[in-house]
Amino acid sequence: MELKVCRATRLEGTITVPGDKSISHRALLLGSLACGETVIENFLRGKDCLATLRCLRQMGVKIEEEEDRVRVEGRGLGNLREPEEVLDAGNSGTTMRLLLGVLAGNPIFAVLTGDASLRRRPMDRVILPLKLMGAEIWGRQEGKLAPLAIRGQRELRPIEYTSPVASAQVKSAILLAGLYAEGETSVTEPALSRDHTERMLSYFGVPVKREGLTVRLRGRALLQGRPVRVPGDFSAAAFFLAAAAISPEGRVVVKEVGLNPTRTGLLEVLEAMGARLAVEVTGEWAGEPVGNVTVESSELRGVEIGGEIIPRLIDEIPVLTVVAACAAGKTVIRGAEELRYKESDRLATMALELGRLGAKVEVLPDGLIIHGGHPLQGSRVQSHGDHRVAMAMAVAGLVAEGETIIEGAEAIDVSFPNFPLLLATLAGEARGK
Ligand code: S3P
Question: Keyword set for this entry (predicted)?
């Protein structure tokens, strides 16, 4: 599918975005392991979360999809049924890595696979600690790549694990496996990654302790099913917030969006670039702060980013690259080598595709240098099968002269199926005025 985006001088409106992808996955998973029912409101019906839903159903979890909610009948810890068929995680790293953590503690055999992109992504980062806990796991290339086969155990060993990467997927897989271990399991990460698993575990009644960059839990605790209202996905909102900042006449308000500080690094960077923005926390949903964000058209300047903020804006770097191309001066992003292991190598794909529009982007081993302020010219670009690259390029298309055509735009369905419509509405509404 191709998405055509024309230059829009105005981008204006008040919107809500679909439910958070990370939180939707976790609500399904924890709901399945809990006692009693978990009703999930504002669940993200994107392909990634639907892959998790299907895999759980294949293991005997009863999940009913209603118009505006999903009902999960928990099976309790350790009661997953052996799936008769291969589990397909599609494009979703979260599905594969978090499911491995859960499967490790269930005494069943399962085979997991995914699409071509997921079969290239490193799985050894979760396999290594899960094997230390006692799970048996096999995979291609000496056990690093999917398809994977796992034989879980009735009892796992607790571990104290120091992760070499700041990855919420690694941390979550170990914590989920830790639920099945007698005693205390801990994970220490090099920088704080998103903490949705910790928050939701606490919300479901499992005490999780944090000391600095270490988080601990005691296994064999009971999870109690609870209603979960999923906040809007900040990473989805980010495309519109960024678009408003770079649009000549932009003003976008996103309501009821998740404002978990482990996710909102982009707001700090936009502010440092000179963006006009306002944030208002209005409440808490299932242990997650929620509120409204407004961003207006702004004179932007380049910045240098790196270090602990990177995991807090990791999924926003593609669109941040677009913002940097529109800012005056140079933006340097360092310490972001993790981007090479996402749905595409996002350092390479963003540099290549933005380059097609005339942006000046240099690729570093662990980041990018963007020389901003060069006018962008519409062109044909590719998504590389990566939803965030597709949406970031659509945002670039709004400020590029003429027309930008994004090939492979169906990738967007992974996380934000109504993105094209919402973008057209905001740009179109404004044009009609
Ligand atoms: C996610 C964690 C991040 C993020 C991904 C979703 C999660 O990946 O990029 O989109 O839901 O835990 P890593 O943990 O691999 O950095």
Answer: Amino-acid biosynthesis, Aromatic amino acid biosynthesis, Cytoplasm, Transferase
Atom of ligand 1 nearest to the CA of 311: 16
Q: Which domain holds residue 298?
A: 2-19+232-432
Ligand 1 centroid to Cα of residue 12, in Å, is 30
Q: Point out the annotated binding site for phosphoenolpyruvate.
A: 21, 93, 121, 169, 346, 388
Active-site residues, by number, are 315
Confidence band for 430, pLDDT divided at 50, 70 and 90? very low
CA-to-CA distance for 144 and 58, rounded, in angstroms?
24
pLDDT at 432 over 50: no
pLDDT at 429 over 60: no
Q: Hey, which of 126, 169, 340 would you mutate to test ligand 1's pocket, going by the most ligand atoms within 8 Å of its Cβ?
A: 169
* pTM: predicted TM-score of the whole model, two decimal places: 0.98
Residues with CB under 6 A from ligand 1: 22, 25, 93-94, 167-169, 172, 193-194, 314-315, 338
What mean pLDDT do residues 368-395 have?
Answer: 98
Spatial separation of the C-alpha atoms in residues 252 and 280, rounded to whole Å: 14
Same domain, 241 and 380: yes
CA–centroid distance, residue 379 to ligand 1 (Å): 30
Side chain identity, residue 34: A
pLDDT per position as a tens digit, 63-78: 999 987 999 999 999 9
Ligand 1 centroid to Cα of residue 336, in Å, is 13
Residue nearest to atom 3 of ligand 1 (CA): 168
Give the per-residue pLDDT at 310.
98
Q: Are residues 219 and 239 in the same domain?
A: no
- Residue 87: which residues within 8 A CB-CB, separation 6 or more? 55, 58, 59, 99, 110, 111, 112, 113
Kindly give the distance from the C-alpha atom of residue 184 to the centroid of ligand 1, in angstroms, as a whole number: 24
Q: What is the pLDDT of residues 205-240, one digit of tens each?
A: 999 999 999 999 999 999 999 999 999 999 999 999
Mean pLDDT score of the chain, rounded to an integer? Answer: 97
Query: Same structural domain for residues 303 and 316?
Result: yes
DSSP for 360-379 reads EEEEETTEEEEEE-PPPB--
Give the domain CATH number at 103: 3.65.10.10
User: What sign has the CA pseudo-torsion 161, 264, 338, 390?
Assistant: positive
